[in-house]
Amino acid sequence: MEVAVQRIPSVLNFIVLVLWCNVNALVCGFEMKTIYCKISDSCECDFKPNIQGLEWDLYKNLYGQHLAQDIVSEGISNFLSKESPDRPLVLSFHGASGTGKSLVSSMLAKYLYGTAMGSPYIHQFVPTLHFPLPERLYQYRLNLKHWIEGNLTTCARSIFIFDEMERMPSGLIDVLEPYLGPLHVVYQTNYRKAIYVFISSTGQEVINSVAMEMRKAGRDREEIQLQDLVEPLNEAVFNANNTGFYKSRIISQKLISSYVPFLPLCQHHVKRCAQRELCQRGECHCVDVAEEVSRAICPTSNEQHRFSSTGCKQVPAKVNVYL
Ligand SMILES: Nc1ncnc2c1ncn2[C@@H]1O[C@H](COP(=O)(O)OP(=O)(O)O)[C@@H](O)[C@H]1O
Ligand SMILES: [Mg+2]
């Protein structure tokens, strides 16, 4: 009751503003949104993309991933520049463990909704938690379809993150097919404004071998281009048995807007992770600890081990040991 009374002046303001805006449409767009957001709980009001902030964070805090930095920044800014996109944005992150895939997905959440993963419009799925039993595929398909449609109806700007796609039962993700293309209609919503992020280690062999070839040829890893990886990645992912992508129509129908390869990390990247970890603990001065941690995680003596097999994932545990 109290809330309703408080809202009356806002509603009156809104009506006056609508009348005024019929005369002066250009000037009042911003005011309209402010007042509309006071009286409504639309997710458009929570959606506050900060593209520059995202670009800066990717540039500064994501080490050794020039492809991910460029593809994600460009993909998001192109997508959000369209008032009415013709299809949703579908990003598929691939790469070894600990290379920054989850880190980038949390940056997306932070710079699009300003609330890290806490927003009600950001939905994260983890197969081991949500789809643990392959024999229940039929039920999971119904649930997932129902759930996506419900969330899109509530919020066209929903963000859906599917982590650990390599553990998802094959055949499940194809229920998303209608929502990822340009043709479908979801009642009461523009479903094409949604963003989907798939995360997996599937295809890591392809990425790692291209990075290794580059290294053996004595060339800079920044020379690796997306074109070097897209085709082999597409094939490896489509044929990856016992994963969520196996023979998926999402791949065969080309519904993924961009593949985002995460390269394996080298010793100096791991060292930067260790330095950051130490600074976060107020031990910025322990430079030798960062050096020791990076050597322990990523010994350079052996050709096979020139990349870290666990990326930066073990850094906090190793810092505990060496500090
Ligand atoms: N490329 C990177 N740059 C900076 N930090 C990284 C990078 N890769 C991993 N990390 C750090 O290592 C930890 C694990 O990374 P995460 O993003 O969860 O890896 P995954 O690729 O397995 O999802 C996080 O604390 C993250 O901040
Ligand atoms: Mg992860």
Give a quick set of tags describing it.
323 residues, alpha/beta, Rossmann fold, five-stranded parallel β-sheet, 51% helix, binds adenosine-5'-diphosphate, binds magnesium ion
Q: What is the CA-CA span between the terminal residues?
A: 58 Å
Fill in the CATH topology of the largest domain.
Rossmann fold
How would you state the average pLDDT, rounded?
Answer: 88
Into how many domains do the coordinates divide? Answer: 3
Instruction: Give the class from helix and strand content and strand pairing.
Output: alpha/beta
CATH class of the largest domain: Alpha Beta
Task: Give the distinct bound molecules.
Answer: adenosine-5'-diphosphate, magnesium ion
Amount of helix: 40-55%
Unreliable spans are 1-7
**Which of globular, elongated, flat, extended, rod-shaped describes the shape?**
globular
CATH architecture title of the largest domain: 3-Layer(aba) Sandwich
Strand content: 5-15%
Order of helices and strands: HHHHHEHEHHEHEHHHEHHH
Count of DSSP helices? 15
| Spatial strand sequence of the major β-sheet | 2-3-4-1-5
- Major sheet details: 5 strands, parallel
Annotation, overall tally of beta strands: 5
